[in-house]
């Protein structure tokens, strides 16, 4: 089975700090080789059903995975507590536990659509930054009570539960916080998890201990949890402020920094927002035009989720650009008793998992239909906006998910080919990607080429010259046939030194353009030192292949 191949090291991880972690070969890598940010191909994910097997669960790692051990790992609980704690993993495992399914979604889910409007700071998530696993762990409120924390503490001033991970990143440890009130209410099911799908956590998902906060964005669920601090101030982690925020669209990252709005409490994201995606038809799936004139039926399918414990109450499909909507059938496996394992409270007052929806229609419904769109509604009557609103981090995109239908002649047959808005990472395809290519304002390298025509004394290097500059003290890279010396930038790189060092001395065009914002592209120009030329030998080889072709 595809989902179980995990015992071997992927060749892409060799030479990176993660070369000890087995990973599923089909996961789509979104930030080059390292760090590991990956989503499963959408159809493969959906074919697994309600519970995602661990190797196919999406992964979001800001840096290298820390090497931690069950026997030596400790959890410190400190700050405004009457009894500070220092717990071993065995201590934690001996407390009463809860075990139940939770759908995790990265706030960046569907960010590639945002990037097609304008590149954000976020990289290109498709619609697979979502997965559902069974998590087992100790209720956070039990641990907090043991440390002597109680709700009365929140009466006079706010109280935050700050979480710190063991992953040391360029700007310090990954960390964030949630309000103490939320953590102390048993109904919210916040747990410190040590098992996923019946086994100990894997390194990528936070081994040996992580936070699970159902209904929240995945980003708050700190992995490799080493410390919990109760404070009257929010987490002091850089990432708590400079990540996982939705800024108003007029702010790009630079302006946000200039005007100091990263710290504005209005722009933090905690709950997930209502969202839905079409998974069938898949991208590039087709049906023969001749099928439209018989009685055959087609089932459109997809997933939907809501935030904060709200229930998805209906999902609708439009075949006429939102003029009319058809109610789909909703399947909520979370409600099955055999799936809710040990959650304490029954009947379920809060909904923590994705729903699946489907709509069976005759093939002929696709006649004169240009696109299929979907929107979901939650129990607060919230629904998705029709249009996308761009934001600097590219997060929380939940506009109507639209699949276009193209008629294509293939030999003697005509096909209706379905096209999703994007494909994850730098995979080609998607109707939004086409429209990006025709947009001249996104050709961010144009100024650079002007530079090379104005300056006639540009230095030139061959690929072999560049290859020699491949270490921490001397680090060159090639992007779009231009050479950059980024030695001085290594330590300042927001993505850490390792993504650049792994690629030092080589062509990183694909990786660089998949990850970086306009700001990063501007910054790159500072390090420009010359152009790439073919070596004599390469020239001979290319002209020979050319001759051979003739
Ligand atoms: C001089 C060359 C480079 C510059 C100026 C640069 C700049 C930046 C900047 C400004 C960011 C923050 C996000 C953004 O604004 O887009 C970033 C993040 C990042 N960069 Fe680079 N970068 C360079 C080279 C590279 C290379 C060669 C790679 C790997 C092939 C790489 C991988 C990454 C990764 C993985 C992140 C973090 C993404 C995340 O986890 O959010 N960078 N870089
Ligand atoms: N310590 C630590 N915790 C972390 C992260 C991280 O990079 N470091 N990434 C966060 C983000 S942005 C998400 S979406 C979830 C992803 O969890 P997963 O990789 O288990 O799917 O973990 C969160 N917890
Ligand atoms: Mo995330």
Show the helix and strand layout:
Layout: E1 28-29, E2 37-39, H1 42-47, E3 59-60, E4 74-79, E5 85-88, H2 89-93, E6 98-105, H3 111-117, E7 130-139, H4 140-146, E8 160-169, E9 172-179, H5 180-184, E10 191-196, E11 199-200, E12 210-212, E13 225-231, H6 238-242, H7 253-258, E14 275-280, E15 286-288, E16 297-305, E17 312-318, E18 326-327, E19 329-331, E20 355-362, E21 371-378, E22 401-410, E23 413-419, H8 431-437, H9 446-454, E24 460-461, H10 463-467, E25 470-471, E26 474-479, E27 482-485, H11 498-502, H12 509-515, H13 518-524, E28 528-532, H14 536-549
Residues 31-32, 35, 62, 121, 123, 477, 484, 486, 489, 493-495, 499-500, 503, 508, 511-512, 515-517, 519-520, 523-524, 527 line the site of protoporphyrin IX containing FE.
Subunit structure: Homodimer.
Keywords: Heme, Iron, Metal-binding, Molybdenum, Oxidoreductase
Organism: Dentiscutata erythropus
